[in-house]
């Protein structure tokens, strides 16, 4: 019936608005139009319409709070009737209170609205709000959200869970009388209702309320109605900026003159909304609640200039960092290359310095060798003359000792060989090449081994593996003997560290090349030592001059061969000589 009334009034208003100069748009919340003050609301709408007639008209819309909020934000209303809490939520949209409801049961409009919690008196387990935990609470949506907000604040102030009644029944199509019947049948454990709604029900309908009990009733209150909570201003008529100030004044005067038919409800001016503001702030539902809820979109909307500046600064810093990093990498690379070139030049300088030092040493050695060869020639010649004279004397003696003759012959042979070495030294210093001849390599190796063992190490064991066929090379026989004797001397020195004097010599034919391999039983060597040997650096022996291997390498090159080094099966040094075979052999 109530909804039909407002629908009829809405249609009538639209018809009147066709010829009116200005239309006033009024929004009424559903709980205000159908609640305890419904008669006062109906009379107020009629009064406002009388004030506006005949030149202006009124359009009335009944809506929920969410619909009303949308309409206000879209500027579709000029007036609205709602709870005091909803009005305070809309103050940032320009809402201003005109009048608030007052009841004859109270002493002023500031304390007219609250909530009452009703339970069955026979329930001894329901004494306080805390006992409602996990209980079913009945509530009708027609009572409005403000009633629930009031209860929720009470729960929070008592330290209880704010949504203790979250399992309440959704009974939006029944009134308070039917809700109490649900309580009597124990389908719900408690009922929440607005203040004075129970007293109004008893006045209108004969209802037995002796079995009901008010949970945590408030005593010594100025309102003569049962209630369980603090009291707040009730329904409020609010204006919006679109309402003309002349109309606002006329409507305010007209509403203050209205008295409901029952004489208990009328409009007054509320002066204190502080408790409502505290309630909304406690529940985070006030007009500034959204400002306290920061979201990414809101942050961008509010502070986009600052954020843009920060992003630009970060981009500039990142760009600057990238450029600096690129320059540093480039400079580092250049410095690294320069350092590498410096190290290479330093190494080359060191190598050249060593080479010059070695050349100076070899030059000095050559001068000493020239002096030595010159001075040694005369004694060797004298030795040969004495050997010749001794040989003739022994021949004239018929009873001469044959062994003595052999010894004299050996002395003469060695003297002849020494003279050849001296002559070879002279030729080497003067840059003259001796006479090349075809020599058999196996025979020369055996001769060198015999000479080495006779002169120095008779106990040095040398294992020689010749080839089955004869192999000839084009060289001076003395050169090859000197090469082999020098290498065997080095092998003997290497074996002194382990005390085992053994060496192996192997000859192989590789196509048109003859290969001589020599290794010993000396101590193992490392790759670093092998590299130094390959570079023919200074001698590692205390008494060495550091020119032995250089002379050997020079002799090998003079024959047209190669001198290489490696690590043998015994992990010691292995010397590899390769000479070209003589053509036509």
Provide the fold topology.
Layout: H1 2-17, E1 22-29, H2 30-34, H3 38-52, E2 56-63, H4 65-73, E3 79-82, H5 84-89, E4 96-103, E5 115-120, E6 137-139, H6 145-157, E7 169-170, H7 176-184, E8 190-194, H8 197-204, E9 212-214, E10 236-239, H9 245-256, E11 265-268, H10 274-282, H11 289-292, H12 296-396, H13 402-430, E12 437-440, H14 441-455, E13 461-465, E14 472-475, H15 477-495, E15 502-510, E16 513-520, H16 527-534, H17 548-559, E17 562-567, E18 573-580
Parallel strand pairs: 1-2, 1-3, 6-7, 6-8, 13-15
Antiparallel strand pairs: 3-10, 4-10, 4-11, 5-8, 5-9, 12-14, 15-16, 16-18, 17-18
Helix pairs in contact: 3-9, 12-13, 14-15, 15-17
Description of the structure:
Helix 3 (38-52) packs across helix 9 (245-256), helix 12 (296-396) packs across helix 13 and helix 15 (477-495) runs antiparallel to helix 17 (548-559). This protein is rod-shaped. The model is unreliable at 7-20 and 542-546 (pLDDT under 50). Strands 2-1-3-10-4-11 form a six-stranded mixed sheet. It has a five-stranded mixed sheet with strand order 7-6-8-5-9. Strands 13-15-16-18-17 form a five-stranded mixed sheet. Helix content is 50%, strand content 17%. It is built from 17 helices and 18 strands. With 585 residues, it is α/β, with parallel strands linked by helices.
